[in-house]
């Protein structure tokens, strides 16, 4: 037997031993590779702070892709209760997005229980709107679909306005460049918009004072500080509202009913 044959035999033996090792340690290697290539953690939900914030492994986790009502707002308690029922005491997987932490040092993640995206489920049940301040990612389509399902079911935050002016007030234009939204009254009678609310995907609100949108007329709601008129109302206290990476405008009546929404 020559040297060449010996090398071949040694090569086959080495391959055989590698296959044996892989067979014995497949589960271990698979889990190790998963930890390296899949950006997630496991943990137990120990506490629910509000609808979109929980404590896992003694760390605060802000649920990505959603924005629930704040304390004092309609559906705040219902959103917190829903999240509590879905997550408290359960083992979960936290999948991280582009950024792992926010400015408050909270972890940012999509929380899954048994393969189900609980964040999207909260949207589908009308306890949050979808929210992607850093731009749309691979989960965006599922959240958009969840929001549409919520609208079809007309529940909670997706309950449409029954105000007589809801069919009259339309969004004529939304300009990111000019930071303004233009609303038009297409009906033949005036609409009083007192306490109607404009909101972005996040936590920025503009509430109409005792403003009357006359029949056939338009009004501009513009980010900035100046004197209001019949044609322009200023959204004060903000340097910007509508983000270049994508956002959504939600308009609600004084009872919180959804009049319209427009995303880009």
Task: Kindly report how far apart the N and C termini lie.
Answer: 73 Å
Number of strands: 18
Order of strands across the biggest sheet? 1-2-3-6-5
As for the CATH topology of the largest domain, it is OB fold (Dihydrolipoamide Acetyltransferase, E2P)
| SSE topology string | HHEEEEHEEEHEHEEEEEEEEEE
Runs in which pLDDT lies below 50 for 5 or more consecutive residues are: 26-37
Oligomer: single chain
- In percent terms, what proportion of residues is strand? 25-35%
Structurally, how many domains make up the residues?
2
What keywords describe this structure?
single chain; 264 residues; alpha+beta; OB fold (Dihydrolipoamide Acetyltransferase, E2P); Immunoglobulin-like; 2 domains; five-stranded mixed β-barrel; four-stranded mixed sheet; 5 helices; 34% strand
Structure description:
The chain has 2 domains: 40-157, OB fold (Dihydrolipoamide Acetyltransferase, E2P) (Beta Barrel); 161-263, Lamin Tail domain (Immunoglobulin-like, Sandwich). The protein is elongated and about 80 Å long. The chain is built from 5 helices and 18 strands. The model is unreliable at 26-37 (pLDDT under 50). The relative contact order is 0.11. Helix 4 packs parallel to helix 5 (140-153). With 264 residues, it is α+β, with helices and mostly antiparallel strands.
């Amino acid at each position: 037997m020559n040297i060449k044959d010996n090398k071949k035999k040694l090569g086959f033996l080495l391959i055989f031993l590698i296959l044996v090792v892989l067979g014995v340690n497949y589960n271990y290697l698979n889990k190790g590779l998963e930890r390296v290539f899949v950006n997630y953690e496991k943990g137990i939900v120990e506490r629910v702070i509000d609808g979109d914030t929980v404590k896992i492994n003694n760390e605060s986790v802000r649920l990505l892709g959603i924005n629930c009502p704040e304390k004092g707002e309609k559906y705040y308690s219902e959103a917190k209760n829903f999240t509590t029922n879905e997550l408290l005491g359960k083992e979960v997987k936290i999948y991280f997005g582009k950024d792992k932490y926010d400015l408050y040092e909270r972890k940012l993640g999509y929380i899954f229980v048994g393969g189900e995206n609980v964040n999207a489920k909260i949207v589908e049940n009308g306890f949050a709107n979808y929210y992607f301040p850093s731009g749309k990612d691979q989960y965006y389509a599922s959240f958009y679909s969840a929001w549409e399902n919520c609208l079809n079911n007309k529940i909670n935050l997706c309950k449409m306005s029954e105000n007589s002016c809801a069919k009259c007030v339309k969004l004529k234009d939304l300009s990111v460049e000019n930071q303004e939204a233009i609303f038009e009254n297409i009906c033949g009678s005036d609409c009083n918009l007192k306490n109607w609310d404009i909101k972005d995907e996040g936590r920025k609100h503009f509430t109409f004072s005792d403003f009357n949108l006359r029949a056939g007329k338009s009004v501009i709601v513009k980010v900035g500080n100046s004197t209001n008129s019949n044609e322009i109302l200023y959204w004060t206290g903000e340097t910007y509202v509508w983000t270049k990476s994508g956002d959504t405008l939600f308009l609600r009546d004084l009872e919180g009913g959804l009049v319209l929404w427009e995303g880009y």
